[in-house]
Amino acid sequence: MNVDASQPPVIMLMGPTAVGKTDLAIELHEHLDVELVSVDSALVYRGMDIGTAKPSAQELARAPHRLIDIRDPSEPYSGVAFREDALKCIEEISARGRVPLLVGGTMLYFRLLTEGAADMPQADPGIRQALGEMLEKGGPGALHAELSRVDPEAATRLHPNDPQRLMRALEVYRVSGETLSAHWARQSPVTLPFTPHPIALLPGKRALLHERIKQRLDKMFANGFVDEVKKLRARGDLSPDLPSMKSVGYRQVWEGLDRGDDCPQMAFRALTATRQLAKRQMTWLRRWPGALQLDPQDADVAQQLLKIVRNTGT
Questions:
Q1: EC number(s) for this protein (predicted)?
Q2: What domains appear along the chain, each with residue ranges and CATH number?
Q3: For the whole model, what pTM was predicted?
């Protein structure tokens, strides 16, 4: 990543799920000359509102977010597509003399935006099916063990409980004969058309974050999350293999409905998956180069953020 400090600023407000990113972003929007761009792989989908904790209509009226509700759940949305869309948003917002504020928790999207996307081989259905059978028989651990054998570098970077990315790394190797790491190593440094200002919201007390996650999930299930997934299933054109339905929470409820689980069982599985997601997100954030780390549990975190963003020239 090549950074030219003369390029217009872009604020990157990153944090784990349920940490309070939306509330902070709205406050920044209401006090400063910033426009919001969502960086969330689930919020892009229409009709997935409860299980994504999508900002309400009232919140979006106060602070419009770009890149929310831009895809039908039947239409896959990739990190490469996000990068193209986000760069357009950044260009349009900057051209009007305002500052883009990118807010979200999909760390891969932030990475692709700042580092670019390596030239990867196309997916192979046969290989993907074979890897799916490996996952079914041995779980994510079998995928991670195989990746550790053929691409130790990628295995170190990828979480052992992230089957989607483990499968993709193995698929790249089996299709091309080259490791995912080798493909990334050939990637030319990206010159960014903006100056990134990464801010990482890292809670000091994980137990408090876990409690926030539980409270939010309890609210989701009370507000009809299971009925939302049932409605999506009833469409007939969606499957658990689609990226939309692999989103944390939706995947656990879909599988629970297949098994005939009751609501508490689905809620427990969703809670476990969400806490694992938060752990992965915080691992990414701690390693993010040059990120300014703030504790969102501090009483004055909003004032800290306002001061920091003002200093970027907004």
A1: 2.5.1.75
A2: 9-117+188-310 (3.40.50.300), 125-185 (1.10.20.140)
A3: 0.83
